[in-house]
Amino acid sequence: MIMKKIKISLVILLFAISFSANAQSKVAHINTTELVASMPEMNDAKAELEKLAKTYETDIQTMAAELQSKVKQYDTEAATQTDEENAKRLQEVQGMEQSIRQYQAQAQQELQKKEFDLLKPITEKAQAAINKVAETLGFDYVLDSTQGQGVIVAKGTDLMEEVKKELGF
Fold this sequence. Notes:
Blueprint: H1 2-22, E1 27-30, H2 32-38, H3 40-77, H4 83-137, E2 141-144, E3 157-158, H5 160-167
Parallel strand pairs: 1-2, 1-3
């Protein structure tokens, strides 16, 4: 009885091994970071982000200059003002500093959101092209060979050129 179970298990194991040997999956790789960075749309997205960042930077510099001017004025006039007036001025300066910090944080959040909004359609387009090329060429799996993504050796088929052709560049 035990021998019969061992024989049946052995036959099933051999069948599974021969089946998996015949059904080899095709695997390719692509560096998605390099692909997205090379897409023409990325230049427009970078330019738009840089323009927005410069706008925020200019606003922050203007606010900082106003603060410095106010601090200089208040320092110059401090000796001729009452303690109560100087305390009010100190609170005003601290409020301005806090406003600048809040604006910086808000600007950073808005830049991150804008970056996400700009990159999402680009990465979706890249993903669609990868999917199409992989299907056309009969690949079952496509690994991301971007450094740090877990692929240690990428000597197999690289889909970069085919995907770039699919994207039209």
